[in-house]
UniProtKB/TrEMBL annotation:
Residue numbers spanned by region Disordered: 1-24
Protein name, UniProt field: DUF4913 domain-containing protein
One Pfam family named in its UniProt record: DUF4913
Source species of the chain: Actinotalea soli
Domain of life, source organism: Bacteria
Lineage summary: Bacteria, Bacillati, Actinomycetota, Actinomycetes, Micrococcales
InterPro entries (UniProt xref): DUF4913
Length: 141
């Protein structure tokens, strides 16, 4: 499976040393929302983005609502990946499918991101991505 596949959510190496009884926070798999979008989310949601039926901004980090929603998706994913039974199903059903539908809606936050190569992709391709300027998203421990 590829580096960003579904088995990553319950990789035992990512939960080593976590003492949930002591209230310690599990280590994050992705260090920032940017890394989560770049390495995982855009590869999972391979949709045709044409600016008419679905919208997506390669520069997603320029849209406040998108950043908030994507940060929420990342945090939910980080939490639910520890549930090997239904975690990813819950994440898709309760979080990803809801927020991604809002984000890609032609009337959603990316409604004006309809032109340019950085805002479109063909079916089966990862969602468009333009790296944010350095320093916007700092990796978290």
């Amino acid at each position: 499976m590829s580096d960003w596949g579904q088995d990553d959510y319950n990789d035992p190496d990512t939960t080593e040393g976590v003492d949930e009884a002591a209230g310690e926070e599990p280590e994050l798999y992705y260090g920032s929302v940017d890394e989560f979008v770049r390495e995982y989310l855009r590869h999972v949601y391979k949709r045709r983005i044409d600016g008419r039926h679905r919208c997506w901004a390669g520069e997603w980090w320029r849209y406040d609502e998108a950043v908030i929603r994507l940060e929420a998706l990342w945090r939910a994913w980080e939490h639910l990946r520890h549930d090997p039974a239904t975690g990813m199903s819950v994440w898709f059903r309760d979080h990803a499918d809801h927020h991604m539908a809002v984000l890609m809606d032609p009337e959603g936050p990316f409604a004006r991101a309809t032109d340019g190569e950085e805002n479109v992709c063909k079916r089966g391709e990862p969602l468009p991505y333009v790296p944010p300027p350095p320093g916007i998203f700092q990796d978290r421990p």
